[in-house]
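Dear colleague,

Thank you for sharing your sequence with our group. We've completed the structure prediction you requested, and as agreed, I am returning the results in plain text so they can be pasted directly into your records. Please verify that the sequence below matches your submission; if there's any discrepancy, let me know and we will rerun it promptly.
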Amino acid sequence: MKSFSIIALTSLVGSSQSFHLPTTPVSPTSLSASNFAGAGVKDYNPDLDSLPGAFIETGKRVWDPWGLSNYVPVDWAREAELANGRSAMLATVGWVWPKWFGAFPGFTDVTTTDPIDAALQADTQWWAQFIILCGVIEANKYWSLQKGQSYLGETSVSDTPFYDPFGIYPKTEEGRKTMAERELKNARLAMIGIASFVAGHFIPGSVPCLPPGF
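Please find the predicted structure tokens below.
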């Protein structure tokens, strides 16, 4: 219970790499045609055209109405999106689990199924363990990159996944493309979902169709 609740709260800031800004300033690139017609919609970085992510939900077009992609490296933006999206997927599970299934047996120092309150009740040792776990994951990501492994859901069959202990990651390029698209869609949905849960918690009634107290 405590682990899920801590994940639900801390994942709002994502992983440390997600917020590691580039060391050199990025100047705006040459702009492509506007992603959506209409007043006030800015052009996006054309490098986005080479990345997956323009799905049917956005009309199969890049969605960047403020043109923010012109001011950060595209690869860094995708790393941040995936890192925060994966954290958000864990956070969504951590938020829903205690409300539907209750707390794990044996944990008596947390007396609520409210994720925010539970995280605040968690003992300091649990926070310390969680922070160490995050550090171990980030360190492994770094060393895996040095060995040529990937954690970005690459589609090329020549790329070795960062973490695949059961060997279930697709071996074909088409299978990897499908897997990457599914992960990206679920990551985006989870980020919207966990943000709505937090908004509904602090501002009751602010999220349509969300039950009070969820």
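Summary note from our side: The longest helix spans residues 173-202.

Kind regards,
the structure core
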